[in-house]
Amino acid sequence: MAPGIFYHDDPAWSDVEPIPQEDGEHPLAAIAYTDEYSEAMSYLRAVMAQNEYSERGLELTEHIINMNPAHYTVWLYRSKTLEEIGADLHAEIKWLNPTALKHLKNYQIWHHRQIIVNKLDSSEGEADFIATMLEQDNKNYHVWSYRQWLVKRFGLFSKPEELQWVEGMIEEDVRNNSAWNHRWFIVMGGRDGKELPEAILKRELDYAKYAIRKAPQNQSPWNYLRGIVRYAKLPLSVLKAFTLEFADLARPDEVFSSHALDTLADIYAEENSQKEEAKKALDLLATKYDPIRANYWNYRKKLLDQPEAVS
Amino acid sequence: MSALAGQDQELPQPPPPPRPTLQEVTAAEDRIEELSDSEWESQDSEAQDSDTMATPKITPSEYVRSVTIPIQDKLATGTTEVQDETLEAVLPFLQGNPNDFELNMFGLPTLRKEAHIKFLKHALGRYPSNFAAMDAARPWLLYWSLQGLTALGHDVSEYGERVVSTFAPFQHPTGGFGGGHGQLPHLACSYAATLSLIIVGTPSAYDSINRRTMWHYLGRMKQPDGGFTMCPGGEEDTRGAFIALVIISLLNLPLDLPPDAPARKTGLTTFLDHLGDWIGRCQTFEGGISAAPGNEAHGAYAFCALGCLSIMGAPASTFNKYLDMPRLLHWMTARQSAPEGGFHGRTNKLVDGCYSHWIGGCWPLVEAAGYTNIWNRNALARYILAAAQFKKGGLVDKPGKRPDAYHTCYNLAGLSAAQWRFAYDGGVEVEGEVGKGDLGAAFCWRVEGEWEDQRVWGEGDTVRVVHPVFVVPWGKAEEARRYFEEKEGF
């Protein structure tokens, strides 16, 4: 439809009786829609009421999405229409790409994409497109969640390219927690708690340590490192020598990472004879290295005196 | 980010009218200068005249130093770049008073209730055409505004009838509410509509909800794995689980799945089947809770998960049963930004006033499970009062951002979490109380009083109690539940 020409003048729509928006008297938070938006929505209500699934309905949804991409109803109706009329889903993806780039934070687009790609039964091109999206916003929650869906749906957990890609994301910003979470997802997520092969365990421990050495005051790889140790059911003491590189109670003025101190406290807490050392580490956190969380560090200290509670 | 609303940050932040011009915003930023400690003290001396409490003196700059982590890595990345920018925007507000707000006896800006009330009343008014992107989020605009107004002590009964008539065409014939007339039903809209109507709290507001069709609608959202989708064929995440239980519990709906619920075909019979386990699967290796199994731990989804468990049963029992609490506490604690004092939603992300509620609001829930006095209430209150109040009213993500109803509502809800102490009376049978039937756990809360230890807010800066689970004014959830308990059938 040419711009400026409304549906009521369009012969292709002459059979449809639009349903204007019912708003009641004195509605709250009412929006003074443009005539164009208001009319398009009136026609959408009408075709939806008729359960009409058609090409023109598809065009109507495109028109409305361009004016308001955050309209879940329009997206749901669009995906139902695509299904009913057996539309070309490759064409849909082609149209979605620039639309997603234009509305970076919109999340309805991602769920819609998931429905389409699921039906296409192929992940081809998806990884590249996701990479393009993340170049604009590298912590976008919906994009990362979509990537996780993709990995699961198409069984990409052990695909070397997936690991390489996420490693590249971490290289680019070692503090990108979304990337760390994705690494966890592909390495551990497909395992259902099954034991980690020795080589992978070593690779992951080494990788997290390598990342910590780049920037020790970065919590992401510390969480990852400790997560792996826990997954592998190893004692935390396997991290003792490494942790001491960044925080050593013998040198309380030379602490390079509050997260190391936190880990050290837990390492000492695991050993019954070392509880005083654990307390010292927690004291350092509470009074000097992470004072905003003093209540928490003091709480952890109290736990040390309760024999049954192991943090 | 407005995760619960399912609308991400890209929504044109709704700066309700009157809209500050760009010039006004930049002019305000120009005035942001750091006050020296001596200037602060001279301002403070006036405020101190009325101060009868002997508060240990600490200047704002000393305070900031006292909560700063004295370690900084040299390596710069995208994350540190935006973090540095954020700190640059926030620090002047923690160290001084760039907006020339009136100060309380602790030298912090007072809570500017009148300005925020005015702002939220505007947010209930008419929006220009460029707000079309909010067309599916109007239920939220009503809820955020009404909830914010009540937290500020403003009587919203003047809006009662209009709230009911506004939502009437939003209700879908097949059950649940959509974002407007003719829109498909959605759990987010159903949540915002239900809470708004419960805030109004009149029989006509209660009766305007079709509970029978709502029950059927919720039944269609239940999934074989235990979770809930946000709409038919929509995403399954912890929001869905929380919202479904909030609605069932408040409206006192049957806990059995309706006969037409698709999940019955896989052997499920009640709304609670597999639910706790599904929530447990959302706890990540970091200890936090994500939208759905495998995703990144995130504050807003964590609140929804804990809220859901708080409705399923006494927090002390459900939290410990389905979650690894030491790891959850470790993750939640780490979400408080230092030195900002406000919260961020994910590891290595930026402070944002909305997490005052999404993370701040998790704390009363875990305290009810027995994990008390672990977080820093005063640092959060300081962030909200000093850095999250917009000059002309309304509250913000962070200094330099525009206010909107969303950030106003959730900063104020977070302030309630910081200012009030709750007790959980689960298991105590009180004759005649509400919540005796199914999903009654969230009606066992009691307000113990205000937090006092080293508090930084004056009497005028206290907000009304916000219910820790339902996020409505204290008392409103109980009133609604009583009304529906006394009703026979649907």
UniProtKB/TrEMBL annotation, chain A:
Look up the record and report any one GO term of the cellular component aspect.
Answer: protein farnesyltransferase complex
**Coiled-coil regions, chain positions:** 261-288
- One Gene Ontology term of the molecular function aspect: protein farnesyltransferase activity
Record bears the keyword Coiled coil: yes
InterPro entries the record matches: Prenyl_trans_a
Task: Please tell me which top-level EC class this enzyme sits in.
Answer: transferase
> Secretion signal: which residues?
none
| EC number(s) stated in the UniProt entry for this protein | 2.5.1.58, 2.5.1.59
Keywords noted in UniProt:
Coiled coil, Magnesium, Prenyltransferase, Repeat, Transferase
Names of required cofactors: Mg(2+)
Gene3D superfamilies this protein is in? Protein prenylyltransferase
Instruction: Indicate whether Phosphoprotein appears among the record's keywords.
Output: no
Q: Which Pfam family, an example, fits this chain?
A: PPTA
Of which family is this protein a member?
Answer: Belongs to the protein prenyltransferase subunit alpha family.
The name under which this protein is listed is Protein farnesyltransferase/geranylgeranyltransferase type-1 subunit alpha
Q: Which organism is it from?
A: Amniculicola lignicola CBS 123094
UniProtKB/TrEMBL annotation, chain B:
Asked whether the keyword Metal-binding is assigned, the reply is yes
Which regions are flagged for Acidic residues bias?
Answer: 35-49
Q: Per the record's keyword annotation, is NADP included, yes or no? A: no
The residues covered by the Prenyltransferase alpha-alpha toroid domain are: 111-471
Spell out the reaction equation it catalyses: L-cysteinyl-[protein] + (2E,6E)-farnesyl diphosphate = S-(2E,6E)-farnesyl-L-cysteinyl-[protein] + diphosphate
Example of a GO MF term: protein farnesyltransferase activity
Q: How does it assemble?
A: Heterodimer of an alpha and a beta subunit.
Give the protein's recorded name: Protein farnesyltransferase subunit beta
Region Disordered, residue ranges: 1-59
Q: Say which species the protein is native to.
A: Amniculicola lignicola CBS 123094
Gene Ontology CC: protein farnesyltransferase complex
